Amino acid sequence: MNRYPVWKYAIIVIVLLVGLIYSLPNFFGEAPAVQVSAAKSTVKVDAATQGRVEEALKTAGLTPDLLTLEGGSLRARFGTPDEQLKARDVLQRTLVPDPSDPPYVVALNLVSRSPAWLTSLHAFPMYLGLDLRGGVDFLLQVDMKGAIDKKAESFAGDLRTTFRDKSIRGTSVNRNGQTIEVSFRDAAALQTAKQLIQDQFPDLATTEAQDGNNWRLTATIKPEAARRLQDAALKQNITTLHNRINELGVAEPVIQQQGLDRIVVQLPGVQDTAKAKDILGRTATLEMRLVDESAEGRAAELSGGPVPFGSEKFFERNGRPVIVKKQVLVTGESLTDAQPGFDQQSNQPKVDLTMDAKGGRIMRDVSRENYKKRMAMLIFEKGKGEVLTAPSINGELGNRFQISGSMTVSEAADLALLLRAGSLAAPMEIIQERTIGPSLGADNIEKGFKSVMYGFLAIMVFMCAYYALFGLFSSIALAVNLMLLVAILSMLQATLTLPGIAAMALAIGVAIDSNVLINERVREELRNGASAQAAIHAGYDRAWGTILDSNVTTLIAGIALLAFGSGPVRGFAVVHCIGIVTSMFSAVFFSRGLVNFWYGNKKKLKSVSIGTVWRPKTDGTAVADGK
Amino acid sequence: MEFFRIHKTIPFMRHALVLNIISFATFALAVFFLLHRGLHLSVEFTGGTVMEVAYQQSADIGKVREAIGKLGYPDVQVQSYGTSRDVQIRLPAQKGMSSDQQSAQVMQALKSVDPSATQRGLEVVGPQVGEELTTNGLKALGMVVVGIMIYLAVRFEWKFAVATVLANLHDVVIILGFFAFFQWEFSLAVLAAVLAVLGYSVNESVVIFDRVRENFRRYRKMSTVGIIDNAITSTISRTIITHGSTQLVVLSMFFFGGPTLHYFALALTIGICFGIYSSCFVAAAIAMWLGIKREDLIKGTPVKRDGDSEDDPNAGAVV
């Protein structure tokens, strides 16, 4: 009656093991570490950097416990803060020869102390939210209307040029909000223009109207194109923010999309809000200039001669100098898009660029006059310019052209990203900000954990006293519940915040409900005279329906919180929901396993250790049945 | 151990009318305070700036207020936060001044009075975030109510769904009433607590209704009132022990969780207390008055047994 087949025990053991392994990393605490990340958008941290770091540390006689390369940053863990500081100095000297123009940021950081075998199993500790570790938190609102207005304006310009090129006469193009209105003198011109838009501007939808002798065409950006545009704008802004924040040397910044048009930026450890804001708002700019192809320019480029008047010397990523003219042809403002792709003829990676009408016109003129000459694309960050690429012009360019040449696929993708990242796609403003001092964070975490711990202990003591052995089973189930909750949160790499801790504490309170239901039911069965084994069986069986109902309704509330909550409420809801699910497992399946294991094999079970089962006597005088 | 030694079914429903009148009065009072005083909404909803400042010795709140008042803020709230050395300052949003400037100015003023003042935390929220939170909060509330009603209507019957949701809204409104009456700060965490209470307090009603359904099956001749009384009586020990356990944890949060969890725990405490009461009296009584009967819960034709007759006087008792 009360026996579990072996496979059920196998499930329990496996779940417990997995739970243990994945909750374990949270208990090791953190060790001092040094983090190396790129300071510029043109620098990448990769395996080669890792080699250099290893080499440098070895020469200095330092061996890190752990050296990991993850998400574009390199982390070396050390045993003591002393070693950490030494390593930082060593790396700073090796990787950053010129402090005024640092290619890398070498920052102090804390990394989990969990042993390598756990890390290799992808068991990582939970990430601590800013309210628990201190730092700055911004919520940025991206002005999507602005982005679309800008796009509509650039479409209007494009249409103007296209109509002129195709000699469609007597048109006037005006932008009205997010729609473009074109008026014509005759119906034929309207039809040609309409055809043209359909062929060349797949993102525009047109409607025509006629009043009197006036034909009008209204072009709007298709909804799916607008969506794509917003998405791209947000992504681009996030990329740009990444590049900018890197230079703050923040150990683990979080830059995430929230909703359709918001970006969350969290900078742990940063207390200087003003500087952080300054950097978030700063712009990198992209410029296109001609390469100085004169004899002097060549000489300066090849053999390091003097830079001719009216030109400047910049360096490419690989350190090769390029002499470019001071005159700026086009800035990043005119660049509307950059996408990596493949050249269909040569099958080589390329980057497709799209310029607005004004930029396209300049490109056309410049390319006609400078056929076979080189044009440099420069990116300016912190007032320092760098040449991204300097291809030669192989034909007349329009508002759409491509850069191809000896590039790998990933280089093309990087270049496209850099070109896009030069500026923000849409303006942003900070709509919410929070600073949490490190001492407040430490306070919060300590108080939070204390409240979970004391609450847990109090319940455990009470359950054991009230339900004897069954209470112990319930307490063990509760502990398992807590462990599984932590394990799942760690697996999801959730960010633990103070509301999350509150939800954990509440989960303990709610989870005990299932156990109480079962235990009370077993007692009731015993009170009504059922045999020990039958009472256990019926207790679990009958309580199940109730547990399911009550947990599902609680889950509904949790999901609603998850759907509509933001920030702290969401953090609460995630833990709340997972806690309900794990409590179903631990309170029903696992605790039954314990009970079955203990009582299941006893054929002639006389009594169950579930505390007092009191029976009212039929004549009305109550007699306590001392178990 | 055994706390509850109940000899007979307790006639809970006998007092239902009186208690429900009291319930209604509390509810009306809560609504009155909500409308009259309103909630003391946190900065997350209203927008503005909140600073937390720590001092080396106990802070003199009067002096802090005076120092900030000199800066020309008409409505500044200063209160101690956590320990006597920590102070929380709330500033309304000001046009033409960025939050940095605001906080820098305030810190400067505070430091000139007592140089040991250090800024521990800062929170700035724009007004549009607050508006969204309010609408999202209401949406969440609506979704919880609808979701629970649908689930209960499917699992039980619409009368139970209506009774449960009314009882729960009663709890929620009373929690809000408390917050309005005492002008406790209503923050996002409190909102989370309120919604959690909504889910949690449904548990209570569900456990009792589950027992009602079971009793309808088991005691075929008992009246509806008797069945409800019996269901509440036989689950009362579980109800009180469960809530007691949850309350233990919540109290632990209240005492050890620090100021951030303070109101969260307080909202839960009120929710738990009223949750017990409302599911025993409000939900069950409403269900009773809505006229639940055996046929609502036991679908299909009941199996006939000896002694059961078609004209069982208790079969469809409506009270």
Automatic annotation (TrEMBL), chain A:
Record-given protein name: Protein translocase subunit SecD
Record's subcellular location: Cell membrane
GO biological process terms, semicolon-separated: intracellular protein transmembrane transport; protein targeting; protein transport by the Sec complex
KW Transcription regulation (keyword) present: no
Pfam families in UniProt: SecD-TM1, SecD_1st, SecD_SecF_C, SecDF_P1_head
Keyword Transmembrane helix: yes
Domain SecDF P1 head subdomain residues, every copy: 317-426
Upper classification of the organism: Bacteria, Pseudomonadati, Pseudomonadota, Betaproteobacteria, Burkholderiales
GO molecular function: protein-transporting ATPase activity
Job description of the protein: Part of the Sec protein translocase complex. Interacts with the SecYEG preprotein conducting channel. SecDF uses the proton motive force (PMF) to complete protein translocation after the ATP-dependent function of SecA.
Family from the record: Belongs to the SecD/SecF family. SecD subfamily.
HAMAP family reported in the protein's UniProt record: SecD_B
Self-association state and partner proteins as the record states: Forms a complex with SecF. Part of the essential Sec protein translocation apparatus which comprises SecA, SecYEG and auxiliary proteins SecDF-YajC and YidC.
Organism: Variovorax paradoxus
Automatic annotation (TrEMBL), chain B:
GO molecular function: protein-transporting ATPase activity
TM spans (from-to): 12-35, 137-154, 161-182, 188-209, 263-290
Membrane-topology descriptor: Multi-pass membrane protein
Span of domain Protein export membrane protein SecD/SecF C-terminal: 106-291
Record's keyword annotation contains Heme: no
GO BP annotation list: intracellular protein transmembrane transport; protein targeting; protein transport by the Sec complex
A single Gene Ontology CC term: plasma membrane
PANTHER family linked: PROTEIN TRANSLOCASE SUBUNIT SECF, PROTEIN-EXPORT MEMBRANE PROTEIN SEC
Entry's family note: Belongs to the SecD/SecF family. SecF subfamily.
Protein name (Swiss-Prot/TrEMBL): Protein-export membrane protein SecF
Species assigned in the record: Variovorax paradoxus
Gene designation per UniProt: secF
